Amino acid sequence: MSEAHSSYRLTRTVLAVPANRRRMVESAARSTADAVFLDLEDAVPETEKTDALQGACSALQELDWGEKTVLVRVNAYGSRFVEEEIRALAPLARLDSIIVPKAERVAHIEAIARLIDAAEGGARRAPLALDLLIETALGLVMVDALAASCARIAALHLGVGDFAGSIGARSAEIGGSPEGYRQTSISAGARYVETPLDLFAYPMMRVLVAARAFGLRAIDGPCGAYRDATLTRAWAEKAAALGFDGKQVIHPSQIEATRDAFTPSPEDLAFATRVVEAMRQAETEGRGAVAVDGKMIDYANLRMAQRILMLGAADRR
Q1: Are 250 and 292 contained in the same domain?
Q2: For 105-122, what is each residue's pLDDT tens digit?
Q3: Whether residues 130 and 272 fall in one domain
Q4: Which residues bind substrate (predicted)?
Q5: Which residue, 224, 241, 263, sits at the end of a domain?
Q6: Phi, psi (deg, nearest 5) at residue 284
Q7: Same domain for 131 and 87?
Q8: Which one of 161, 189, 211, 217 is CB 3.0 to 4.6 Å from 245, fit for a cystine?
Q9: What is the SS3 assignment for 154-186?
Q10: Any known ligand binding at 73?
């Protein structure tokens, strides 16, 4: 992924909709989401897989998607549906990327890439990308090799629901930590203190580090409590603060709060501008560090400030 302002693709909000529900797909196309993924996998019962594929192909050819990034999540490698899905989808010019669910083995990603090579054709403006959904224990263990496995890979997504199930976590809320996952200790006053812990702290960081190491975008999984505006905003802010590029959303009502969490505030942009200007002046004076607003700033701060300005510039396009 290039960090240049001109080429950075905003995917702050990635709205998921089942491809067999035409009215939902049409609504997603009209929405303010940065990206939409049409689902052929978990959101579609097996008896409707064929209809979902036809629905995705029709929607890609018939609907106005504006400047959205459009993705389709196919069924997992080894399923009886995936080869037909790729053959039908790969030539469609409006499709930007295929999401590969339950990505676990390099050989599987390479096989999918070969299927795309054979089916892609010449109608596309740009090569079809692959987004990998890391949602199992094995997938997380293999994430570095998966991220480096194919030049088509554009992003890593963390599949929070399936990942929790994969490790046996007792969580009833998609994207949330189990109630019992907490540290109990004794304070100096001999009182018991309970500290809630975050189930996803490690997998989020692991996916993010792999994405950054190989120049990919990192997309967090959804907040399942889509009716809870506080949780939707808080979990999006956590992912944005950590450095993720965006987050999946499962309902249009989550788009605004999630987008806002990933959009630099005017205060963030103003501070980042001061950092860049101060470092530019410091360089002319032969210095590698300078004070800004009472804080010592060096080249590490400069790189963080440049990313904030890049996000702000991409948002204004």
Answers
A1: no
A2: 999 999 999 999 999 977
A3: no
A4: 73, 135
A5: 263
A6: -65, -20
A7: yes
A8: 217
A9: EEEEECHHHHHHHHCCCCCCCCCCCCCCEEEEE
A10: yes
CA R_g for the chain: 21
Same domain, 56 and 136: yes
Q: Residue 8 falls within a domain, yes or no?
A: no
- Max Cα–Cα distance, the chain, nearest Å: 72
**pLDDT tens readout for residues 253-273:** 999 999 999 998 888 888 888
Question: Do 252 and 287 belong together in one domain?
Answer: no
Tell me whether residue 5 is in a domain. no
**Helices assigned H by DSSP within the chain:** 22-30, 49-62, 82-89, 106-119, 137-141, 143-147, 160-167, 201-213, 229-242, 255-262, 266-284, 299-316
Chosen domain end from 221, 241, 263: 263
pLDDT tens for each residue of 60-98: 999 999 999 999 999 999 999 999 999 999 999 999 999
Angle at 63 between CA 60 and CA 69, to 5 degrees: 60
Cα–Cα dist 17/276, whole Å: 40
> What is the extent of the structural domain holding 129?
13-263
Residue that is written with structure tokens 């993010």 in the block:
208
Average pLDDT, the chain: 92
User: Into how many domains does the chain fold?
Assistant: 2
What are the pLDDT digits (tens) for 134-178?
Answer: 999 999 999 999 999 999 999 999 999 999 999 999 987 899 999
**pLDDT digits 0-9 by tens, 175-231:** 999 989 999 998 888 899 999 999 999 999 999 999 999 999 999 999 999 999 999
For residues 280 and 255, membership in a common domain is answered with no
